[in-house]
Amino acid sequence: xxxxxxxxxxxxxxxxxxxxxxxxxxxxxxxxxxxxxxxxxxxxxxxxxxxxxxxxxxxxxxxxxxxxxxxxxxxxxxxxxxxxxxxxxxxxxxxxxxxxxxxxxxxxxxxxxxxxxxxxxxxxxxxxxxxxxxxxxxxxxxxxxxxxxxxxxxxxxxxxxxxxxxxxxxxxxxxxxxxxxxxxx
Length: 185
Prior knowledge:
Elements: E1 2-7, E2 10-19, E3 26-29, E4 35-40, H1 46-54, H2 56-69, H3 79-104, E5 111-114, E6 121-123, E7 129-132, H4 140-152, H5 161-168, H6 174-181
Helix pairs in contact: 3-4
């Protein structure tokens, strides 16, 4: 169901999705400027508008960005391309994780390579490190940042100051790399 909210004179349409798996409310803005709010079961729907108003500046910024620059060119890639490069990406990720984990000494469960459409990597609450196979095609410093970023989530499962300080131990220029990575979709 499509819903509407107004910020000043801006009308924002969003889709509300309820999820049994979600632990917190979440907003996603996609390249086509579609907005999806995910609401965990148990939370009341009247909290959504309050949440959107708190996040209004961020939300409008993302929508204007996609309107200005268009849909990112992060292409999922074919299954054949994925199958052809999956093992090499896994070898790269495993080698770099082992290298950086000599510094961090963090425990993880497993490393997986996926064919994701919009993410470079993720870290699950079970300690699984997941990476997009396309890290294989990035310059080393960008791939290293992604690997370190997800590795640090094993200790700090958020984007707090503690998390960024942990990342900065190995990637002191993480903020510039983060900005550059946004253009590599």
